[in-house]
Q: What sequence folds into this?
């Protein structure tokens, strides 16, 4: 199976703090890889480095075999092949839902407005918001705004979808609708790298679960192995805390 993303020896420091400490990770085509770990373990930083929003201090990010982390290259070119959704929805409040989704395809990718809007309406239908195209973000619930953000990330058919704790800012009753959408994308064969605290969701959807601790990738494998029978004591300690908190 084709490897879409390869992270090799990723190191990221902020001053004296090492946030990523030699991370190696591969994501194959149509694979869903879920990053788990405590807050501060390096999950979000890894996603930001993959999307080239943060520059590595050492190591490489390869997208379809190309070293897109090479500082001599224009990172925006690589970013156009990746869709990213963060914890915050980051929708433009002065734009309608339709305009939020079509902005990047039109301005960055040069897609004609008519074609961009047709694609946006198709995506809104898929995320269950076909009737909200003319609405402004402040008229939507948090779950609806996050579904719009996911639709926006799919508007230019990215090679790789990056999801960073996309349910953490949602009220508990809205989490399910967003995770259901991600589950649907996974069944459609999207290549996804995501960080989440939702262990039950990881168990259901992931092809592979990767546990990060202290900026290192401690354990990686199928969800039934990592979540039910981990080999490393640090993974076991983390999962015990999750179980005690009632999240697994």
A:
């Amino acid at each position: 199976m084709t490897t879409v993303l390869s992270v090799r020896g990723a190191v990221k420091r902020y001053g004296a703090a090492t946030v990523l400490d030699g991370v190696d990770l591969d994501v194959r085509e149509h694979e869903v890889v879920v990053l788990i770990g405590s807050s501060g373990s390096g999950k979000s930083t890894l996603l930001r480095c993959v999307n080239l929003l943060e520059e590595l201090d050492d190591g490489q990010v390869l997208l379809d075999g190309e070293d897109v982390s090479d500082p001599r290259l224009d990172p925006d070119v690589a970013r156009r092949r990746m869709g990213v959704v963060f914890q915050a929805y980051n929708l433009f409040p002065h734009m309608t839902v339709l305009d939020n989704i079509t902005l990047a395809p039109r301005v960055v990718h040069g897609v004609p407005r008519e074609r961009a809007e047709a694609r946006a309406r198709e995506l809104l239908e898929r995320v269950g918001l076909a009737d909200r195209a003319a609405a402004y973000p402040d008229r939507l619930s948090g779950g609806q705004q996050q579904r719009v953000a996911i639709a926006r990330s799919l508007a230019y058919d990215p090679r790789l979808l990056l999801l960073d704790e996309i349910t953490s800012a949602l009220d508990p009753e809205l989490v399910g609708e967003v995770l259901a959408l991600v589950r649907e994308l996974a069944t459609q064969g999207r290549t996804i790298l995501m960080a989440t605290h939702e262990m039950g969701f990881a168990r259901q959807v992931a092809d592979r679960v990767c546990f990060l601790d202290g900026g290192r990738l401690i354990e990686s494998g199928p969800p039934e192995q990592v979540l039910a029978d981990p080999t490393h004591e640090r993974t076991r300690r983390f999962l015990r805390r999750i179980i005690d908190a009632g999240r697994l």
About this structure: The beta strands are 3-14, 17-28, 32-36, 58-63, 66-67, 82-85, 160-164, 192-195, 208-213, 216-221. The longest strand covers residues 3-14.
